[in-house]
Write a structure and sequence with these properties.
Largest sheet of chain A: 9 strands, mixed
Structural class of chain A: alpha/beta
Radius of gyration of chain A: 21 Å
Mean pLDDT of chain A: 82
Strand content of chain B: 25-35%
CATH architecture of the largest domain in chain B: 2-Layer Sandwich
Helix content of chain A: 25-40%
CATH class of the largest domain in chain B: Alpha Beta
Radius of gyration of chain B: 36 Å
Order of helices and strands of chain A: HHHEHEEHEHEEEEEH
Shape of chain A: globular
CATH topology of the largest domain in chain B: Alpha-Beta Plaits
Number of strands of chain B: 20
Largest sheet of chain B: 6 strands, antiparallel, barrel
CATH superfamily of the largest domain in chain B: Reverse transcriptase/Diguanylate cyclase domain
Mean pLDDT of chain B: 86
Oligomer: heterodimer
CATH class of chain A: Alpha Beta
Largest interface: A-B, 58 and 57 residues
Distance between the termini of chain A: 67 Å
CATH architecture of chain A: 3-Layer(aba) Sandwich
Strand content of chain A: 15-25%
Helix content of chain B: 25-40%
Number of domains of chain A: 1
Number of strands of chain A: 9
Chain lengths: ~250, ~500
Amino acid sequence: MLLSATNVSKFLIVGPAKQDIIQQLQKEVLSMQRLKKVSGQSLNTGLWEIEKAFPDQTFPLGAVHEFISNAKEDAAATNGFMAGLISHLMKKGTAVWVSSKRTVYPPALTVFGIAPEQIFFIDLSRQKDVLWAIEEALKCNALSVVVGELTELSFTETRRLQLAVEQSRVTGFIHRYDPKSENNTACVTRWKIKPLASDTAGLPGVGFPRWQVQLQKVRNGKPGAWQIEWSAGRFRQVDQRSFSIQETQKRKAG
Amino acid sequence: MQQRYAAIWFRHLKTDWMVRRQPAFKDVPFVMAAPEHGRMVIKAANAASQNKGIDTGMVVADCRAILPTLQAFDDKPELAEKLLNALAEWCLRYTPVVAIDRPDGLILDVSGCPHLWGGEKPYLKDILAKLRGFGYDVRAAIADTIGAAWAIARFGQVSPIVAPCRQVEAILPLPPAALRLDAPILERLEKLGLHQIQSFINMPHKALRRRFGELLLTRLGQALGWEHEVIEPIRLAQPYQERLPSLEPIKTAKGIEIALRQLLEKTCLRLAKEEKGLRKCVFKCHRIDGLTQQIEIGTSRPSRNAEHLFKLFELKIATIAPALGIEVFVLEATIVEDVVSAQETLWNFTDGGNSAAIGELLDKIAGKLGQTTIRRYLPDEHYWPERSAKTAASFTEKPQTKWRTDLPRPIHLLQTPETIEVTVPIPDYPPMLFRCKGELHNVKKADGPERIEQEWWIEQGQYRDYYIVEDEGGARYWIFRQGSYEQGNNPQWFIHGFFA
């Protein structure tokens, strides 16, 4: 009875005091999980809507992010979205891109604001070597980003990667193409990107790249889904309302 | 002091070496041959085969006609150089200045050495006896000049020792070949009937120079002593070894660390000067009780980073038992290799500290998985998609031109375009639908065509008309038609990439 009474008394705390306590506790939890803000570094993606989903409303740097794609089209969209994020991170830094079956076409990275000559591509055939190279690269704090493309990744392996970035504060992006199972990992986020039909406002031709961005998992955050477009060298959230109005207008006209 | 030179001539250097390795061939005629213009040409013949009239420069098949039992082995091109180097090193016991005289001789500067053997005669006899004892067929001579010694060693008939200042008399009866002349000059002398040096030595120099060129006079001068000749003595490789004696026996780990640091710095300084790095290194501690303690490290790639090497050693210092104290420290790099590329300054778009760290990371990866796995791309001025990026030759190379950003390019490009089936209005509209690997795609939006011509100076072939198409699912593809529908052609369609 005593226990329930205290519980009730906790619930009775209302107003700003309760909010403060929760925020305080959340911050403590974050610092315990070593997801502190990297000092002097922040990723301003221009995607306020997405950033709201992250703990502390900032894109977690110095952590490993996981992307999963199942089709070739999705893989291209994923790499496009990743390239957009990377361009913000490697303004003057160097990146390492480790992959087992690389299909990325370096000249196209310029579209996303990346200087391809600043990337070291490491092409390996064995998954074991790919993992080793990713881990070694993540340990090197002189790099700004490490991208790894591989298929399978176990929980233990991601934990190793997470330990590596906790020391070096390097941001890692792991792109898993067509994995056998979407197993649990120690990565801070799990993304799924799918291409969406571009909007040309009735004009002929193909429009800007547009994706359905799905944040399936995020540690201490709120998962969500957004429609994002890459135009004029930055991300832009598609205004879904105007989009739907256009659609209905079209239908009426058609 | 009077200069004296000895010339040693190995008449059958390579074949003697073969006999040394396989004594069964001692009296068997055999040759060593190498392919040249599709034939096996003899590069070395032993004495037994020379007696039958077989000599270098002949074709093995022809010689088999002379001597069907002739044995032929593959020639080893670097063998002579290696043998001469080893023999020159061995000859250092006779004089400190030994030079290699390619392709089959040695030159020794013996000034002031023979008296230790009791004169030039016993000196030369000792050299010859020892070399012959090894199984080499050797001739040697001593004279005032290199040229005269060379000539007498090869062509001399009388005495192998030319008394001081008597080289003129000694070479007079020798053929012109004794002057180390080129084949065309020898041929011309032969044609004019000048078979001995004495028949032209007294001719006016002007006439000789005009008819036979400067070389004849130079060689003559070198043989007679009025032209100076330099030799390049061999130098023995210094072992990469550093010693550090200590004033008082050292017993503490700190003391050992200090000694190790000093030795490593000295070694690394020398390695840096010679552009080398060490792969294996031994640190020996000689204790005062006469025992030796040693620790060893190895690196995955040649390194001369004292800090890095010290870290490797540091883990093992604890295993050294100093007992009563260590009096001498010795650091020896047992395996030393050339450093492939200096990676001190990598790029200029990152600051110095970063580039060193990245260099170490890339070295680590290259050391384990191979240098070829790491690639960096630079723009290349080609429209053809496969050629518009080239691999950078080095990590430091900067782009010469800018990346093109005006033309849309897919983020994923297939290594080889894959064929697709299309339904398309001709002549040059984008397809209405296409089937790729059995999957049907309805084209909703399309851009194009962008025509890319085949670069005829690199490769022949048809042009490509590229279209960007978007299917009903929103996926964007880069497809192209190879050639045109003109004149009833049926060009093929390919998918070449995926847009983001």
